[in-house]
Amino acid sequence: MKQLFITCVCTMLFLLMACTEDHSFTLDEKQQIIVVHNLLSLEIESDSSQIDGEHLFFITKVNPYETKELDTIKLYGQSTGLDIKKFGGGYKKIERVNLLPNRKYTITHSGMGGRVRIQEFFYTDSKGMLRVDPSRKRKVGYRDK
Questions:
Q1: Is 5 helix (H, G, I), strand (E, B) or coil?
Q2: Per DSSP, what are the bridge partners of residue 35?
Q3: pLDDT greater than 70 at residue 1
Q4: How far apart are CA 85 and CA 97, in angstroms?
Q5: H or E element: which one contains 15?
Q6: Which of the two residues, 23 and 93, has the higher pLDDT score?
Q7: For residue range 11-54, what is the model confidence (pLDDT) as tens digits?
Q8: How far is Cα 51 from Cα 46, in angstroms, rounded to an integer?
Q9: Ordered DSSP codes for 93-140
Q10: Which is nearest to 81 in space by CA: 96, 61, 66?
Q11: How many CB atoms neighbour CB 124 within 10 A?
Q12: How far apart (Å, rounded) are the C-alpha atoms in residues 53 and 60?
């Protein structure tokens, strides 16, 4: 019985450690890059009421078994090792993310586990440069109901 208890405690300890990995992401406004820790899937969606063919981008790793801890998404250049798809009447594979000027964007990093779903809010200025929206707070965890 003691051995079963020790086995259960060790298993729970390892499971808890696995759930605390860093899955956050940050925007470098100067370089216009997004750095993602442990990329699973990242969505960039326009909040604009003027929805057109470029309102949703879906980004994953080309090789899902890649163990690289940090991935870099270049907003105005070609990113390597990433699969970028654009939604507009179906998903279409593209080479780079093209954000439109004067729009609000929501970026969501999601995957398995409660702490993995992270959502942040941004906007693009008149030149199409992505900026952090200071009026809205970051959301962490599963969807709000």
A1: helix
A2: 26, 72
A3: yes
A4: 9
A5: helix 2-18
A6: 93
A7: 665 555 555 566 789 999 999 999 998 888 899 998 765 555 55
A8: 8
A9: EESS--PPSS-EEEEEEE-SSTTT-EEEEEEE-TT--EEE-TTS--EE
A10: 61
A11: 19
A12: 20
Per-residue pLDDT band at 145 (split at 50, 70, 90): very low
Task: Answer yes or no: are the C-beta atoms of 145 and 136 closer than 8 Å.
Answer: no
* Structure-token pair, residue 139: 């959301």
- The full length of the chain comes to 145
Q: Tell me if 103 sits within 8 A of 54, measured CB to CB.
A: no
Buried b (16+ CB within 10 A) or exposed e, 58-82: ebbbeeeeeeeeebbbebeeebeeb
